[in-house]
C-alpha cells in the first residue's frame, strides 16, 4: 500500500527547516511512545542537513531519548570516512553533539577507507539492514523505518538514484553501489526505491526555484526513467515539503 503525495508549502528555507524539524520530532516522540524506540533514514544535501540542525536546535529535542533512535542513510558518498563530502560527517557537524545518540545505532554506510568498492559497501549495508530486521523479529531484509527524509535534485534524483540509470528500476536489492553519479562525487552507495518506500513516512525536503521543474514532475507522476523522485511513496504518508518558489504561481 502506498500513500498519496501531499504538498506543503513554506515561505522560505528557514521556515521549511524549522517546521520540518518539528514534524520530525512529532514522529520520533510518537514512535517512542508507541514502542520505546524510533528508526529514521537521513539523506544528504543542504535541506536534509538544515533540518537536522533545526532538530538539534529545537527546545523540544529533549522530548526524545536519542539513545533509542536508529539513524540510517538513504545514500552516501563513497569517499574517505572522515571526508567533508560524507553525508554522515555533514550530519554529525549539523547536530554538533546536541543529540546524544548511541553510536551502535548510528548506521553510516561504508567508506572508501573500509571497502574496496562501493558495491562491497552496499553489500555490507544490506547485511546491517537485515541484522536490524532480525533484531525486530521481522521476516524481512530490513527494519521498519518510521520516517525517511529525502532531498530532490533539479534533475529529479533522490538519494543517489539518478535519471536514466538502471538503479532506478531495481526492485529487489535494498542497497546498490553507484559508479557514475552525475552529482559529484561520482561513486556512491544508495538505497533503492523499494527500500526507501518501505518507510512508513517519506518526506521530500525541497527549497529553491531551481527545483520547480523536478517538483512539478514528481507531482505529475512523471516516468521513473526521467524523474526517480516520482517513484517515491511511503506506506502511510508521502509529503512534499517545499518552499513557495518550488511551486507554480
Ligand atoms: O548525497 C546527496 O547528494 C544527496 O543525498 C542528494 O540526493 C541530495 O539530497 C539532493 O541532491 C538534494 O540536495 P540539495 O538539498 O542540497 O539540493
Structure description:
With 249 residues, the protein is of the alpha/beta class. The protein has a single domain, classed as Rossmann fold. The protein is 30% helix and 18% strand. The strands form 2 sheets. It has a 6-stranded parallel sheet with strand order 1-9-8-5-2-3. Strands 4-7-6 form a 3-stranded antiparallel sheet. Helix 1 (13-35) packs across helix 2 and helix 2 packs parallel to helix 3 (87-95). Bound molecules: 6-phosphogluconic acid. The site of 6-phosphogluconic acid has 16 residues, from helix 2. Pathway: Carbohydrate degradation; pentose phosphate pathway; D-ribulose 5-phosphate from D-glucose 6-phosphate (oxidative stage): step 2/3. Residues 11-238 form the Glucosamine/galactosamine-6-phosphate isomerase domain. Hydrolysis of 6-phosphogluconolactone to 6-phosphogluconate.
Amino acid at each position: 500500500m502506498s500513500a498519496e503525495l501531499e504538498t506543503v508549502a513554506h515561505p522560505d528555507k528557514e521556515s521549511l527547516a524549522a517546521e520540518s524539524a518539528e514534524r520530525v520530532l512529532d514522529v520520533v516522540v510518537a514512535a517512542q511512545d508507541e514502542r520505546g524506540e524510533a528508526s529514521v533514514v537521513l539523506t544528504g544535501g543542504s535541506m536534509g542537513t538544515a533540518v537536522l540542525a533545526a532538530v538539534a536546535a529545537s527546545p523540544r529535542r529533549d522530548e526524545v531519548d536519542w539513545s533509542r533512535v536508529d539513524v540510517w542513510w538513504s545514500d552516501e558518498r563513497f569517499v574517505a570516512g572522515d571526508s567533508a563530502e560524507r553525508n554522515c560527517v555533514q550530519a554529525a557537524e549539523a547536530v554538533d553533539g546536541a543529540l546524544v545518540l548511541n553510536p551502535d545505532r548510528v548506521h553510516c554506510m561504508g567508506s572508501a577507507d573500509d571497502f574496496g568498492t562501493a558495491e562491497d559497501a552496499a553489500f555490507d549495508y544490506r547485511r546491517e539492514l537485515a541484522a536490524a530486521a532480525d533484531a525486530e523479529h521481522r521476516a524481512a531484509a530490513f527494519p521498519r523505518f518510521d520516517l525517511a527524509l529525502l532531498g530532490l535534485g533539479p534533475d529529479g534524483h533522490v538519494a543517489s538514484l539518478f535519471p536514466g540509470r538502471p538503479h532506478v528500476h531495481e526492485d529487489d536489492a535494498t542497497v546498490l553501489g553507484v559508479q557514475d553519479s552525475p552529482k559529484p562525487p561520482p561513486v556512491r552507495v544508495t538505497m533503492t526505491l523499494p527500500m526507501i518506500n518501505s518507510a512508513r513516512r517519506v518526506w521530500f525536503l525541497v527549497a529553491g526555484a531551481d527545483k520547480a521543474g523536478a517538483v512539478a514532475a514528481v507531482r505529475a507522476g512523471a516516468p521513473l526513467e526521467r524523474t526517480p523522485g516520482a517513484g517515491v511513496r511511503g506506506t502511510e504518508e508521502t509529503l512534499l515539503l517545499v518552499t513557495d518558489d518550488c511551486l507554480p504561481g
